[in-house]
Each structure stands twice: as structure tokens, then as C-alpha cells.
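Can anyone check this?
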Amino acid sequence: MTAPTVQLLVWIAEQSRGHAETVEAWKTSCPRLAVWEDALADDLVRIDGGRVLLTTAGRELLRTAP
């Protein structure tokens, strides 16, 4: 997993984050750095009631990240 992906997961795990806040903070115009979009596609995060949450896979990746 890339360092930016781990940074995103740590950022979400630190406190409750809204969808709009997350998209604003992690949006990118560079397709090579699509951290937010990749995390969604890789099932590391999910949106529930407008909140962004780590999935089981996201929590596990964060737990085992160096």
C-alpha cells in the first residue's frame, strides 16, 4: 500500500470525518495520486450516512502498516 493511502486511513481514523470534508481534503486532479478514489475502489473506506468510515479491510491495513 502506498504512503498516501496510509495517510488517508490515519486521517480518517483520527476523528469522525464527513464525506464533503474528505472529498475536499483528498481530491486530486492528478490521476496518479487518486488516493480517495483508490481507497473507495479497494474497499478500504465506506460512506455511511454522510460519514466516511474505515472498513474492516481499511482497519486491518492500518493495523499492519509499517
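Reply from J.R.: I decoded it. The beta strands are 17-18, 45-48, 51-54.
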